[in-house]
Request: fold
Amino acid sequence: MKKFAVVVFFLLLKLLAYGQEEFITPSKFISRFPITLFTGGVVVLKAQLAAFPDTLNFILDSGSGGISLDSSTVDYFGLKPQPSDRTIRGIAGIRAVSFIKNEKLHFPNLTVDSLNFHVLDYSLLSSVYGEKIDGIIGYSVLSRYIIKLNYDSLNIEFWTKGAMKYPRGGFLFKPLITSLPIQTVRVRDEKTINARFLYDIGAGLNMMLTTDFVKDSAFLGKKRRMYAKQAEGLGGKIDMHVTIIKELKLGPYRFRNVPVYIFDDTYNVTSYPYLGGLIGNDLLRRFNCILNYEKRDFYLIPNGQFNAPFDYSYSGIELYLIDGEIILGDVAKGSPAEKAGLLEGDVVIAINKDFSQNIHQFKNALQHTGTPAKLIIRRDGNIMQYEFKIRNLIR
Reply:
């Protein structure tokens, strides 16, 4: 009887060990390929759709609960979207969506199948970045793999789900995840507040705060200097204000004098008071990261951009590439550009003797605080020159 009991005991141990082995199956490397960073640290991946040979641009976006295609890309391929009664909320509006269902997306050495793309108009994003944006990759892909983003080497890696040993030198976050990751962050100005924010690598800014959060928390001083600004999001353009907060603390990492956007959350994207806003990739790109949705692990390691200065420049203008021309968008009231006489709709020919018509170079030229910006523009068929000094948000 004793011998039988011992045999049973060892059989149980073996079964438990087998189950343990199954549970801790190691993650395996699948693919590595380059990424491109657009303004504000927005990550762009190259991929191919279904059997089409064209290489497309997709924004990687943890703030997206699915995956999507631009409507003009859908038209170009002759695809027929299926109508639906679903809508998607963005900071600038609510849009009804149709779907392209059960398609594949091809990356180098990796094909992701059974994807249901919702279809939206991303022409505004294409104008902002000066390159065609064909879609946005969110939870539908991110949740299937372990993703490694390296901003030092500008590449992304896809790994299978499973056990992974994280490298030294970083910090393990455990965000709340349904389809969108939510992280608690501490912000400090006149007061110190802990609140939940969307972890949004698709947003090309440091942080956005809702006016409701700012008002109810009262953590900003009453004499806060605000600068008018226009931003772009799902649904179109939206008027905001930009200011500087004294400190943002993400886990053990502190950032001081951080530019933040403040907006009216008209369409209740943040479901306030559940969220106070979002953290964007102009801040998050300062970490190489491992995103493990299955384990609810976001592992962040400070990288070579960790101490990079924030952009404190303020010109008061937005640039868009429309029909091959770089156009002035909103010109903020009271801004240096408005005081100089620039108007919305002016066509930019050159900035500081740069006639390249490269929107990225033009935007960079407007990020040197305290320096003069000389713009040659075309208005009503006339060529004019305007000059103003780029203001520093910290004064």
Observations:
- The longest strand covers residues 236-250.
- Residues 313-392 form a domain with the Pdz3 Domain fold (CATH 2.30.42.10).
- Residues 2-16 have pLDDT under 50 and may be disordered.
- The radius of gyration is 24 Å.
